[in-house]
C-alpha cells in the first residue's frame, strides 16, 4: 500500500514523463521475451542436426537459425537499452522536479527552520533523497519488469516442446522452494526485521560516535570507550554469524536442487526411454538440458531483483518532511511600523509540540534607540527571544511588535530592512570579501562597501590578504578566523544599516586583539540604533541601557548593571562568578 503510494507520488513528479516510465517497463518486459528467442532457434538447430544425422552436409538452415539466435540476442539487448533510455529520461526529470519543488518550498520557510535543521542536512536531504529515487525509477523498476517477464516466457518455453520434461524441470525448483520455506518458515520475516534493527542500531551508534569523535580524540580514548557503539557492532556480528549458521543446511539443499535440474531430467529420461528412444525425444531432452541453467539464472535474478522499496520510502518521507513544513503566512493587511521600538507581549513559543516552552509569557518593551543586553544561563531562551523578533519563527501565543505593529503584519521586505542579525557563527560565502559584504545591499557601491569594512575594523584583514577586498575567501588556502569572520559579518550589517540590530556575541575569542576589534566594531554599529544584544561576557554589558536576565524562558530580572549588581539575584551571582573567573584570567562564560 505504502509502496504504491510512493510510486504514485514519484510518477506525480514525472508529469508527462510518466509515460516514458511506463514505456520503460513495457520495453524491458518485452526484451525479456526476446531474450528467450535464441533458445527457440537453438532448438531448431538441434532438430535439424538430428534429422539429417549422420549426413550433416544436408542441413540447410543451420546458418540461418544460428544467425537468428544471435540477432534476437542482440535485439533483446537493444530493446533493453531503449527501456533504460526511457526510464532514465523520466528518472532525471523526476529528480530535477523533486529538487526544484523542495528548493522553492524551502525559500518560503521560516529562517529558524534552516537554522535548527542545519543547511548541510537540508542539502543532504534534497540531494541524496532525490538521487535515491533516480536509481529506483531508472534501474530497479525496469529490472523488476524484466525479472517478472522472464519466468512467464520461460514457463511457455518449457511447456511448448515437451510438457512432461517441462514439468520435470520445474519439480526440483518447486522442491527447493518448499524446503527453503519449511526450514526457514515464518522465522524469515522475523529474522529480516531483527537484521534491519541490528543494522539500524549500528548506524545510529556510528553517527553518535562520529559526532563525539573529537571529544574522544582529545582525551586520547579509542573506539572502545564508545561502549554502546562497540556493543552494537558485537551484537550485529553475533546475530549475523548465528543467522548464517542457521541458513547453512537449507541453503545447501536449495542450491543443490536448483543447480541439479539436469540430473533429474537425465534420470527421468532413462526411465522414459526404457523401451526405445525417438529422435524427437532426444532433441527435446538435449534442449531442456541446455535450458536448465536459464531457470537457475532467472531464479537468482528474481531473488536479487532488489527493489529497495525501503530506500525509496525513506527518501520520500525525508522529502515530505521538508514539503510538509508550513511557510510563514503572508499578511493580508500589511501595516507599517511607526518607529523602531520592539515589544513582546505575553509571548510564548516552543520548538516542538510537547517540548517545554522556550519562551513563556515573556513581556518586554524596548523603546527606539535603547540598548538592551540579554544575559542568563545557557538554554534560558535568549537566542529564541531574538529569533522571534526577527520573525525567524512565529510565536505560539502573544505577539511581537515592531514600531507598534505585529511582525506578522509587516511585509517581509520591510521587516528585513528594519531588523538585522549578527550571528555567533557568521557564514562567509566562497566569493570575494567585497561580494560577501555587498550581499547585504546589492546596489551598494565599492566605496560604500569599503567604508563599511573600515567601520567594522576590518582594515587589518584587508591588509594581510593578497588581493585585499577582492580576495576570494575559502579559496587557495585563504581562511579567516572566527573573530575576523564576525567582523566581516558586522560590515555586512553596517552596510545594510537597519535601525534595529540583534547581536549574538561570540562566546570566546582566541586573542585579545581580535576581541577588542570586534567590540569596537559592535560599538560603531550600535550607534543610534535599537539594539538587542545577547551577551556571554559580562564585561560587555556594563555600559548597556538595560540588562535583562533570562532564565527558563522567563524574564528573571531587569535593570541597569548598577541596580542589578546590588540586588540579591541571579545577576549579582553571575557578576561575582565573573569577577572571580576574571581574576583567574579565564574571563569566559561559556554558552
Ligand atoms: P540560550 O540562547 O539562552 O542559550 P536558546 O534560546 O538557544 O537559549 O534555547 C532555549 C530552549 O530552547 C532550550 O531548552 C533549547 O534546548 C531549546 N531550543 C533552542 N533551539 C532549538 C531548536 N532549534 N529546536 C528545538 N529546541 C531548541
Ligand atoms: Mg544562545
Q: Can you describe this structure?
A:
The protein has helices at 2-14, 18-52, 62-108, 111-117, 119-161, 163-184, 187-211, 213-218, 227-259, 261-272, 279-304, 309-323, 382-389, 412-418, 433-438, 446-455, 459-464, 482-496, 512-526, 561-566, 570-583, and strands at residues 342-349, 359-366, 371-375, 397-402, 405-406, 419-422, 500-504, 530-534, 546-551, 554-559. The protein is an alpha/beta fold and 591 residues long. It has two domains: 6-323, ABC transporter transmembrane region fold, CATH 1.20.1560; 342-580, Rossmann fold (3-Layer(aba) Sandwich). The strands form two sheets. A six-stranded mixed beta sheet has the order 6-7-8-3-9-10, with helices on both faces. A four-stranded antiparallel beta sheet has the order 2-1-4-5, covered by helices on one side. A hairpin with a 2-residue loop joins β4 (397-402) and β5 (405-406). The radius of gyration is 36 Å and the shape is elongated. The model is unreliable at 586-591 (pLDDT under 50). The site of adenosine-5'-diphosphate has 11 residues, from α13.
Number of domains: 2
Which of globular, elongated, flat, extended, rod-shaped describes the shape? Answer: elongated
Question: Any idea what the CATH superfamily of the largest domain is called?
Answer: ABC transporter type 1, transmembrane domain
At CATH level 2, the architecture of the largest domain is Up-down Bundle
Gyration radius, in Å? 36 Å
CATH topology annotation of the largest domain: ABC transporter transmembrane region fold
Structural classification: alpha/beta
Mean of residue pLDDT values: 85
Number of helices: 21
Q: Cα distance, first to last residue? A: 48 Å
Say how many strands there are.
10
The proportion of strand residues reads 5-15%
Q: How do the strands of the widest beta sheet line up side by side?
A: 6-7-8-3-9-10
- The first-level CATH class of the largest domain is given as Mainly Alpha
- Give the ligands present: adenosine-5'-diphosphate, magnesium ion
Largest sheet: 6 strands, mixed
Amino acid at each position: 500500500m505504502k509502496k504504491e503510494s510512493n510510486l504514485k507520488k514519484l510518477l506525480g513528479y514525472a508529469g508527462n514523463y510518466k509515460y516514458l516510465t511506463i514505456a520503460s517497463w513495457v520495453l524491458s518486459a518485452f526484451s525479456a521475451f526476446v531474450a528467450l528467442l535464441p533458445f527457440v532457434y537453438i532448438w531448431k538447430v538441434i532438430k535439424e542436426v538430428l534429422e539429417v544425422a549422420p549426413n550433416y552436409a544436408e542441413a540447410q538452415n543451420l546458418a540461418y537459425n544460428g544467425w537468428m539466435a544471435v540477432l534476437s540476442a542482440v535485439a533483446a539487448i537493444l530493446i533493453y537499452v531503449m527501456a533504460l533510455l526511457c526510464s532514465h529520461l523520466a528518472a532525471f526529470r523526476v529528480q530535477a522536479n523533486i529538487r526544484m519543488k523542495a528548493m522553492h518550498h524551502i525559500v518560503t520557510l521560516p529562517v529558524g527552520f534552516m537554522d535548527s535543521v542545519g543547511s548541510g542536512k537540508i542539502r543532504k536531504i534534497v540531494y541524496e533523497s532525490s538521487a535515491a529515487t533516480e536509481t529506483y525509477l531508472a534501474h530497479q523498476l525496469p529490472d523488476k519488469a524484466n525479472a517478472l517477464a522472464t519466468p512467464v516466457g520461460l514457463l511457455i518455453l518449457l511447456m511448448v516442446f515437451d510438457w512432461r520434461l517441462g514439468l520435470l524441470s520445474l519439480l526440483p525448483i518447486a522442491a527447493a522452494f518448499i524446503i527453503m520455506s519449511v526450514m526457514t518458515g515464518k522465522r524469515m520475516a522475523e529474522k529480516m526485521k531483527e537484521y534491519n534493527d541490528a543494522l539500524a542500531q549500528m548506524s545510529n551508534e556510528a553517527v553518535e560516535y562520529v559526532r563525539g569523535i573529537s571529544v574522544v580524540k582529545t582525551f586520547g580514548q579509542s573506539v572502545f570507550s564508545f561502549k554502546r557503539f562497540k556493543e552494537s557492532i558485537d551484537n550485529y556480528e553475533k546475530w549475523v554469524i548465528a543467522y548464517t549458521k542457521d541458513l547453512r543446511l537449507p541453503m545447501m539443499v536449495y542450491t543443490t536442487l536448483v543447480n541439479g535440474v539436469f540430473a533429474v531430467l537425465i534420470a527421468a529420461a532413462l526411465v522414459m526411454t526404457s523401451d526405445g528412444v525417438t529422435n524427437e525425444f532426444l532433441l527435446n531432452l538435449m534442449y531442456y538440458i541446455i535450458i536448465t541453467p536459464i531457470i537457475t539464472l532467472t531464479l537468482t535474478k528474481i531473488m536479487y531483483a532488489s527493489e529497495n522499496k525501503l530506500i525509496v520510502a525513506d527518501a520520500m518521507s525525508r522529502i515530505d518532511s521538508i514539503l510538509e513544513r508550513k511557510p510563514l503566512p503572508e499578511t493580508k493587511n500589511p501595516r507599517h511600523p511607526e518607529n523602531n521600538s520592539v515589544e513582546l507581549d505575553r509571548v510564548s513559543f516552543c520548538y516542538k509540540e510537547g517540548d517545554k516552552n522556550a519562551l513563556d509569557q515573556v513581556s518586554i518593551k524596548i523603546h527606539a534607540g535603547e540598548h538592551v543586553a540579554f544575559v542568563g544561563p545557557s538554554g534560558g531562551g535568549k537566542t529564541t527571544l531574538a529569533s522571534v523578533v526577527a520573525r525567524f519563527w512565529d510565536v505560539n501565543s502573544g505577539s511581537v511588535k515592531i514600531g507598534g505593529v505585529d511582525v506578522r503584519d509587516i511585509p517581509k521586505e520591510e521587516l528585513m530592512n528594519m531588523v538585522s542579525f549578527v550571528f555567533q557563527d557568521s557564514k562567509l560565502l566562497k566569493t570575494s570579501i567585497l561580494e560577501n559584504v555587498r550581499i547585504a545591499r546589492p546596489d551598494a557601491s565599492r566605496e560604500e562597501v569599503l567604508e563599511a569594512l573600515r567601520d567594522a575594523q576590518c582594515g587589518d584583514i584587508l591588509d594581510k590578504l593578497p588581493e585585499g577586498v577582492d580576495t576570494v575567501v575559502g579559496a587557495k588556502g585563504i581562511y579567516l578566523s572566527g573573530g575576523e569572520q564576525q567582523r566581516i559579518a558586522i560590515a555586512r550589517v553596517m552596510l545594510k544599516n537597519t535601525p534595529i540590530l540583534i547581536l549574538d556575541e561570540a562566546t570566546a575569542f582566541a586573542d585579545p586583539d581580535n576581541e577588542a576589534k570586534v567590540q569596537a566594531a559592535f560599538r560603531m554599529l550600535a550607534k543610534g540604533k535599537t539594539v538587542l544584544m545577547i551577551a556571554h561576557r559580562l564585561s560587555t554589558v556594563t555600559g548597556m541601557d538595560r540588562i535583562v536576565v533570562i532564565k527558563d524562558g522567563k524574564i528573571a530580572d531587569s535593570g541597569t548593571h548598577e541596580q542589578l549588581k546590588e540586588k540579591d539575584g541571579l545577576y549579582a551571582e553571575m557578576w561575582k562568578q565573573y569577577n572571580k573567573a576574571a581574576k583567574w584570567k579565564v574571563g569566559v562564560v561559556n554558552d
